[in-house]
Amino acid sequence: MIENGDKIAVGVSGKDSITLLIALRRLQEFLNKKFSVEAVTLTLGIGKYNLDYIQELCNNLEINYTVEETLIGKIVFEVRKEKNPCSLCANMRRGALNNLARKLGCNKVALGHHRDDLMETLLLNILFEGKISTFSPVTYLSRMDLNVIRPLIYTKEEDIKEFINANNIISIKNPCQIDGLTKRQYIKNLLGEISKDNKYIKENIFGAIRRSKIEGWDI
Length: 219
Fold this sequence. Notes:
One of its GO terms (biological process) is tRNA processing. By secondary structure, the chain is an alpha/beta fold.
């Protein structure tokens, strides 16, 4: 995922990406490869953001921090008035993040997706779109000549939560008005319920993805 000379933009938006940012900074200290890290946050033009903690964290980590103001939330909720806003919002955020990364001279974007995100995305695509797909550890965007990497892809969400709690890390509150009411939250809750009866459910799904030959996992 990481090579000599990489300049990696980390989209910082919550507990997962904060964990990733800290992990990459610590990785710089012992990995036998030289790379740099840029922290970036996109505002959505809705709600209130308090980014003081992230700025202080980046100062302590000696990482440059860029905040990009956008109107993505206003476009999705007020202009387009989307009934199912998550897909459009995600696409617009990805585009804005990738453009900002290129503007900062980065050749890679690191996202904080973890193992649970991977499985939830698979089930979302199967149940609501009728396709077997999920995101991959590394994705090359040929149009932008940019690689998207997901270093936490094998990390359980519960381990990230333990790291956050153990280090008293403050997460950014999501200003989205439907946070916690999405189809993804529905899938998360569903996985939690069925895992109560079979503790191997998530292991089985993750193993199926690794063996599936889904695009990006044919390794």
